[in-house]
Amino acid sequence: MRKLSILKKIMILVLILALPGFLYYLLTVKGKNRYHALSVFGPKTVAKTFHKAGGKDVPDTIYHSLPDFNLLNQNGQKVTAAALDDKISVVNFFYTNCPNLCSQMNQGIDSLANEYHPSKLVQFVSITVDPQRDTQSVLKAYSGKFKNASSKWMFLTGDTSVIYPLARTGFLVNAVKAGDDYIYSDKIILIDSHKRIRGYYAITVSDEFDRLDNEIKVLLSEELMKNSTPEY
User: Fold this and answer.
1) Which residue in 7, 39, 121, 160 is deepest, having the highest Cβ count within 10 Å?
2) What are the pLDDT digits (tens) for 157-185?
3) Which domains are present in the chain?
4) Does pTM surpass 0.70?
């Protein structure tokens, strides 16, 4: 009986997290006033392999995905691109001395981290563009400002020779130091379980925040359909 009770709780949790995204997904497929299915951003190449669609051979598409990297989280642990495998990741760039925008972005992420705290599939990643000052110990102290900063929310630092190219060629956003200032993207980036970019969101715009929340649920519903027994 206890196992049945636990299973029932898990199923309720799955429905709470996935149902809004699943309905959103249905609208993209069946609805008259359709949303567009989530795009995959970045350069694409046509593969030499094929798949069947409508009885015809259709060339496969190779989509842009994140390259490997080597950074350090707020707990002093090494983090590579493998940490994003089989996860839905919500990513932003920031620095701890940023006066206003970064705090606003990370407060928004904190609220999402609270919403998706039960989900093992969703994680959050904030990468500093000022690693010289934002050392591991600084990020550890900074992360303490947020109630949901844990293994579910990684604050990453490293070397600019890794971070800046990763931003530009991996996440396809700006990140560079200009004098005493930093030029970096104010967008939050949604990454799917295959490390592909699925959306960019201006967190300072309420509609964009809601869209991000909805599209996380879309990816959750995709994972639910893809895996017969996923862990949420």
Assistant:
1) 121
2) 999 999 999 999 999 999 988 887 888 88
3) 70-226 (3.40.30.10)
4) yes
